[in-house]
Amino acid sequence: MTPHPFWSFSLDRYGRDGVAPLCLELQERHGADVNLVLFALWLGRDGRGLDAEGAASAAEAVAEWHLHVVRPMRGVRRWLKNRAIGDRAARDRLRAAVQKYEIEAERMEQDMLFALAPMVAADLPDATVPAATMVRNAAHFCTPQGDSAPEATLARLAALCL
Question: Which domain holds residue 76?
Answer without folding.
Answer: 17-161
